[in-house]
Amino acid sequence: MGKLVYSMITSLDGYAEAAEGDLGRGAEDEEVHTFIGDLFRPVRTFLYGRRMYETMVFWETAHAEPEAPPFIVQYARDWQAADKIVYSTTLESVSSARTTIERSFDPDAVRRLKEESEHDLSVDGPNLAAQAIAAGLVDEYHLFVTTSVVGGGKRFFPDGIRLDLDLVDQRSFAGGLIYARYRTR
């Protein structure tokens, strides 16, 4: 049975999307990016909302960039090898292989995916993750915390949800980014 993992880069004050600007320094650092690639290589299915998919579809062709360093090419190849499910009522078509569109998030269908999978799954994007969290589907939370306080935006954790978690791994990077992995109790 696979685990469902929710992971994003967050600001120091807990925002997965800043109201204005970006979240600060993050995965562009080779050390961090390589760590993220190694961490998520076993994930074989990514669950995306439309906006997150539109951000991540870059990886469908990133390997072909003439100046792409090996760690970028590796991440692109791993992303291309995984299945992607995009939850959207507005997206007409997808531009990546191994990708399907679902019109609504069905917790029971995701539960079945987890039960039938030999590999982990990832839910990406705070809106879609909020639905998975509310349904009790998320097994682990992987936070990559930047050194920036952004003062507003979309929170990593949804309002109105209480979670008691166990810290199972942590790491800090030279650029100041902190990784923390939590498991649900």
Structural features:
185 residues, alpha/beta, eight-stranded mixed β-sheet, two-stranded antiparallel sheet, 5 helices, 10 strands, Dihydrofolate reductase family protein
Residue fraction in strands: 25-35%
Order of strands, main sheet, comes to 5-4-3-6-1-7-10-9
- Quick one: how many beta strands? 10
* Radius of gyration, taken over Cα atoms and rounded to an integer in Å: 16 Å
Low-pLDDT sequence parts: none
Query: What level of helicity do the residues show?
Result: 25-40%
Average predicted local confidence, pLDDT: 95
Q: Could you state the order of secondary-structure elements as H and E?
A: EEHEHHEEHEHEEEE
End-to-end span in angstroms? 17 Å
Protein structure class:
alpha/beta
- Characterize the biggest β-sheet: 8 strands, mixed
Helix count, DSSP H or I runs of 4 or more residues:
5
Overall geometric form = globular
